Each structure stands twice: as C-alpha cells, then as structure tokens.
Amino acid sequence: MKKDLVLKGGDVFTAADSFRADLRIRGGRIVELADRIAAPAGAQVIDAKGLEVYPGGIDAHTHFELPFMGTVSADDFESGTTAAACGGTTTIIDFVIPSKGASVLEALKSWHGKAAGKAVVDYGFHMALVEFNDQVAADVPKLIKEGITSFKCFLAYKGAFMVDDAQFLEVLHAAKAHGALVSIHAENGDVLAYLMKHLIAAGKTGPEYHPVAHPAAAEGEATHRGIALAKLAGAPLYIVHMSCDEALREVKAARCRGQLVFGETCPQYLLLDESLYRKNGFEAAKWVMSPPLRDKSNQPKLWEGLRDGFIQGVATDHCSFRFQGQKDMGKDSFLKIPNGIPAVGDRVSLLYTYGVRQGRLNRNQFAAALATNPAKIFGLYPRKGTIAVGSDADLVLIDPKKRGVVSQAASRHRVDYSAFEGFKLEGLPVLVLSRGEVVAKGGEYVGAKGRGKYLKRERFNPEEWSSRP
Ligand code: URP
Ligand code: ZN
Ligand code: ZN
Questions:
Q1: Residue 349 C-alpha to ligand 1 middle, in angstroms?
Q2: Does the CB atom of residue 316 touch ligand 1 within 6 A?
Q3: Are 204 and 212 in contact (CB under 8 A)?
Q4: What DSSP letter does each residue of 279-300 carry, written as one string?
Q5: CATH code for residues 57-379
Q6: pLDDT confidence band for 466 (50 / 70 / 90)
Q7: How far, in Å, is the centroid of ligand 1 from the Cα of 197?
Q8: Residue 161: pLDDT above 80?
Q9: N-terminal to C-terminal alpha carbon distance within the chain
Q10: Which residue, judged by its Cα, is nearest atom 8 of ligand 1?
C-alpha cells in the first residue's frame, strides 16, 4: 500500500470556508482534515506553512487536438494537460465535436483515443450536438451512460457546427429527459454570416474586422434566444465563454426571474480587450477567437457578475494555434484565421492575481469559480472541486508571495506566443497534487506520463442549485 501523505499547516480555502489545517491523504483521497495531524510512521510530510491550499482547478472548457477551420488545434491532451497541471488545474472537460453526419459515439471513441495514455490530469468530455436526428436521439442515453452528461449547441459557425432553433429545442428536450445539461455558444450565426459576407465584399479582410463581424449585439441576441428556448423547454442552460455585458444582462434577468441559467467567462474577456485588434497589423490574429475580445468597459461588469454569483465559472476555452503556420492561414481573409487562444496553463494564476490579489474576488469566491462550481454543475462534486474527507486529493498550493510574469518562454503550451505575454502575476501555484500525487512543483511537471483518468460524470442535479445568486 502507498504511504500516507500529510500536508501541514496550510491555509485551506474552499468555496464555503477558510481555515488553517493539516490534511492526510491516502489512496489518492483526503482521509483526514484536522487542526493538527501526527504524521504516521513512514508518511511523506509536506510543509504548507505560508501557502494557500485550494481545490485543484477544474477547467470545464478546453479544445485539445480539435480539427477546426482547416487545421488541428496545437495542444494535444499531453501538452494541454501538462500545461494545465503546471498551472494548477487538475481536471479538464474537453469538447467532443463530431462533424455533421458523423456518429456521436464514433466521435466519442476518437476523443478517448486522443486522451487515453496522454492526459496527465483527469478529464471528462462534453458532447457537441451539431445536429439532431433519430440517430442522435437514440445515442443520447448511451452518452449519458458513458458519463457524458452535458451537450453543447453552437448557435454560431453557420455551415459548420451551427444548429437552428428547432434542433436546439430538440436537444434541450432530450437533455432534460435524460438529466443532461445543455450549454450554448451564444452568437447569432446568421447575423455573423451576413456581416462577414459584406465585410469581405468591401475588401475588409484583415483581422481587425473579426470583431466587427462578431458584435456584442449578436451575442446578446443569441444569449436571450437561448435562454428563451430553454425556458420553453423547461430545461436548465449553461452559457459558455460570455464576453460582454449584453450577454451578462440576459443571464442576470433570467436568474432574477428564477430561471436556472449558468454563466461562464474566461480570463481573456476579464483581462484583454479589443484594442489588441488594432495594433501591429496581422499580429491581431493571435487574439482572433469567438466571441472576440470586447471593449474594456465590459471587464468590470464581468468581474462583478462573477463576484455577485451571476457567473459561476471561469474556464479558458483553450483552443491554441501557432501564429506561424496556423493563424497565418488567414493572411488574406480573417475568415480563415483559426479561432482560439492558448490559456489553460494561465487561468489559475491570472484569476488569483487579478481576482483575489486585486480585491475583485475573495478567496472563497476564487475557489468557487476555479473548481467548486464547475464540479457541481458538471457532475463531479464532491469527488472533485472541494477539500473534504472523501474527496480526491486534487489540490493547488499557491504561494501568495511568489511573483512572476506570463511569457511564452515559460509556458507549457505548444504554440509560439502567449495571449497574456507580460501580465504580472502575484501568487503562483508552487505545488499541484492530483489524486494525492505531486504532479507539478514550481511550475515544472514532475508526474508520470499519461496518468490522467477518464471521469464518468453524474447527471445534472438541479437540486444543487437555486437559480438566484
Ligand atoms: O474561438 C474559439 N472560441 N474557439 C474554440 C471554439 C469555440 O467556439 O468554443
Ligand atoms: Zn464556442
Ligand atoms: Zn470553446
């Protein structure tokens, strides 16, 4: 039997509590939590004095090795989860995205093939339903049995992943019947297609026109429509990667009416803004993502939404492409720039620095957005997302005194730039444990290869939630 591990004297923060404690770990789980624990003979002891101990981060939105826009996202499950682990994230949920006409079960098999033996942290999958027909309807209960308890619909990417309202309603009904949660990429794909057509026709082909083709109004409209259709179906809804106040206002209104709607935002929308599209010519392609970066005025609104409980989680939407050789596929037309940025390794320290250290979130709110809420929403709680006896010993220890700067050079992402280059960090993850194993130390990966396990997730449990913040 493996020996016990005792973490001594850390300041523990969960979504609910803050306390100083010792933790004893055995068999990958937390088995004791007390003021003082005498380490059993032979136990490994880690001195956590002066460190803040949080539940290991859960990034509920990644795209590793995703075939997308004529290329494949650069980070695979090995590099992506290694970057995650080094940055303090111990669970990721990636999106299986089948092509139209393809079997969802075959797509799932293919994603298992990409992840098994490569992922170094535990992982689950969401399933994107890019169409709805009798076959998909028959496969939904099979997906649930496999632990895929959340489905994503794209209201954008017309001609590729987009579903129409009727198909979206079918998905909502099927998900409700089987206890799954539906999430949406909320941008109006018809509006975007219309704007793209006219911009290109007018010769406006540079990356600075990407945000023009993706206005906040189109995100607000799709968020509103998604929420209205979820209400019609009597189903809960999760809005991924909210970038602007137009979307947030819809979520706020729905939650204040008592509708069960969840919101997710990302570090890029909290910290970067659309001025990046107007600097340095084609370099703007580095930040071409959907939705795009918005006017800076949205940032305080998103932070407040997070603080006030209207937004539950901060995920990364990590979908990385090299600038040279991938982003530059769109030199002649912004429509061909693969959408997405690298971020999975940066999330925890950015959220800690700009959330906790700059006074926008308290430490419990940080734990909630980082891990607890995604675990509860996506059927992983209390195994993941908290620090409690019986939970997996997934932990991130942050040294609040350590400082750093985000840089491509130090990053584990398999790309040639960092979206957050030069961002100052105050408080770094110095030790990361996954199921009781130290997997990262001082930002370096020290765990075994391919040790991550697939997580079969539980069905969505509305009882966990009151819709009001
Ligand atoms: O630009 C983005 N967000 N790329 C990844 C795919 C998506 O829409 O989530
Ligand atoms: Zn999306
Ligand atoms: Zn995404």
A1: 22
A2: no
A3: yes
A4: SSGGGGGGG--SSPP--TTHHH
A5: 3.20.20.140
A6: low
A7: 20
A8: yes
A9: 45
A10: 290
